[in-house]
Design a protein that fits this description.
This protein is α/β, with parallel strands linked by helices and about 400 residues long. The chain is built from 18 helices and ten strands. The strands form four sheets. A four-stranded antiparallel β-sheet has the order 2-3-7-4, with helices on both faces. It has a two-stranded parallel ribbon with strand order 1-8. A two-stranded antiparallel sheet has the order 5-6. Strand 9, helix 18 and strand 10 form a beta-alpha-beta unit. Helix 5 crosses helix 8. The termini are far apart.
């Protein structure tokens, strides 16, 4: 090989080994690891940026970079950073924690070298979520999601400035939609939150935080270092088994015995997300003309879909979250007067006149027709389940996502 070829080979070897030496770890060489497999090519070492970095490594510079990169992240420091960034609670777990095995391949694909998962909690305003005017509730979901993603990004910046590799997958959307109908989320926020001791899964399949109840959104940071203290799963479930979520769900997705009809929830509540959108688009394609389409889809439904496409997708219900009284900061009104609580929170949602999206012949259709005769049943397609041969989705695990 000529001289130029040798230099290219040298660059490739150095890039594969990374700044921390073989195996990468994103800067672990600054923490005492091997600094590379050999001398840098002359052209690379002469570059001004490279010279500046090498100067910081010199004994005279005191290796300040190494001092800023502790092998183990102090949990107290991390908590202070998280709360200052806007989170309301935080806890970390090691990736090798029993119960997180299913997350490992997905996490390591997103950030090779991940060693810890850091769960963040942001509270939502309860009465916004409870309002029968679902634009109010959806605005709360969206704004809380923005706050959570912004907080996660600020924390990742602090970790990065401290010399660590870290990423903050979205708390909500966007997700990896090229994998739909398979698993589209990078990391299962609910699974991590439970492992970190930030709550337990209630009857309605939402995480209930011991203090804040289910009025929370969750995010997870992936970090390439250990954390000095870990959260541990709580030894009780904050769910008080009031069954109000059972009474509130308009399509009977939650059974008293704990059974959960995922397809019923997905079809109605996520009508204006990926599955319902596909069905709506197919309705357009199947219509003979504009008049036929208008006969199939009302102006209100089209306007609602337009709103979701323009201003973020809206949930049709999430009533199970709205009525949940669990959590130390939430429980008092329910304990004081349960009848009044149901009159103020549960019944307005039950009495609301609204369309319910169900598939023909489904248990959800039978339940909605029997339990809520004043609500209009809208028979729709298969909620976006793929019709392509060989496609098998992960819809039945959607309750585990963020």
């Amino acid at each position: 090989m000529d001289k130029r070829g040798e230099q290219n080979d040298g660059n490739e070897r150095d890039e594969q080994d990374g700044p921390g030496g073989r195996g990468g770890r994103g800067g672990r060489g600054g923490r005492g690891g091997r600094r590379g497999s050999g001398p840098l090519p002359a052209r690379l070492s002469a570059h001004p940026s490279v010279r500046a970095v090498l100067a910081r490594r010199s004994p005279d510079a005191g290796d300040d970079a190494a001092k800023r990169r502790p092998e183990v992240i102090d949990a107290g420091w991390l908590r202070e950073v998280a709360l200052r960034a806007g989170a309301d609670d935080v806890a970390a777990v090691p990736l090798d924690r029993p119960g997180l095995e299913s997350e490992r391949p997905h996490v390591e694909r997103a950030l090779p070298g991940t060693r810890s998962l850091v769960c963040l909690v942001v509270r939502m305003n309860r009465d916004n979520v409870r309002s029968p005017e679902r634009s109010v509730a959806n605005q709360e979901f969206h704004q809380s999601g923005e706050l959570l993603n912004a907080a996660a990004r600020r924390i990742v910046r602090a970790l990065q400035d401290a010399g660590h590799r870290a990423i903050n997958p979205s708390a909500t959307f966007p997700m990896e939609m090229d994998r739909y109908p398979g698993r589209i989320w990078v990391v299962a926020h609910k699974t991590v939150a439970v492992a970190a001791g930030l709550g337990a899964i209630g009857l309605h399949r939402n995480v209930i935080h011991p203090r804040f109840g289910n009025f929370v959104l969750l995010a997870t940071l992936l970090v390439d270092a250990e954390v000095s203290e870990h959260g541990e799963p709580i030894d009780y479930n904050p769910c008080v088994e009031c069954k109000l979520c059972v009474a509130a769900c308009p399509v009977g997705a939650i059974a008293k015995d704990g059974a959960f009809d995922h397809l019923a929830c997905f079809t109605h509540n996520y009508r204006e997300f990926m599955g319902g959108f596909t069905d709506w688009a197919e309705t357009i394609a199947d219509s003979a003309d504009g008049a036929d389409f208008r006969a199939r889809v009302s102006d209100a439904e089209n306007s609602s879909m337009w709103q979701s496409l323009s201003f973020r997708a809206n949930y049709k219900a999430a009533y199970c979250m709205a009525v949940c009284p669990a959590g130390e900061d939430v429980l008092e009104p329910y304990l004081t007067d349960r009848q009044e609580f149901m009159a103020q929170v549960l019944r307005p949602l039950q009495d609301k006149v609204e369309p319910l999206y169900v598939t023909a012949g489904s248990p959800a259709a039978a339940y909605a027709r029997r339990r809520f005769p004043h609500k209009e049943l809208r028979l729709v397609g298969d909620a976006g389940r793929s019709r392509r041969p060989g496609d098998h989705g992960d819809q039945d695990t959607w309750h585990l996502r963020g």
